[in-house]
Amino acid sequence: MTTRRPCAVLGKWRITSADLWDADYLDLVEPAYIRFDEGGHGEMAFGALQAGLECETAVSIIFFSFEGSDEMDPVLGTGTAKLAEDGTLEVEVSYHHGDEAQLKARRW
Fold first, then answer.
1. How confident is the model at residue 20, as a pLDDT?
2. Of 5, 39, 15, whose CA–CA distance to 92 is shortest?
3. Whether 78 contacts 2, CB under 8 Å
4. DSSP secondary structure letter of residue 10
5. N or C, which terminus of the chain has less Cβ within 10 Å?
6. E-assigned strand segments in the chain
7. Domain boundaries in the chain?
8. pLDDT, tens digit, for every residue of 58-103?
């Protein structure tokens, strides 16, 4: 019998940088974050984006889909969040028919 290790990515993370947006934009409405909860759910908020997440977890990576709004327009897409060797989180977000972004986060 094997015991499954818990996912190290669960919890709330402060988004600190992105390749497409500056820090002022990331924190436009509130401090930018992404959160992964037990049970396969979560949420993220940065800029004008607010989105709920549906997640699949492994030990050091989470695959997720998101749905929400950005400047009152509906948005959806997919992403991954992977624990880096230095303890930070590397997040890739792909908007459906839109941009792809790389985000960096630290544990909140």
1. 96
2. 15
3. no
4. -
5. N
6. 11-18, 33-37, 41-46, 49-57, 61-70, 73-83, 89-95, 100-107
7. 11-107
8. 999 999 999 999 999 999 999 999 999 999 999 999 999 889 999 9
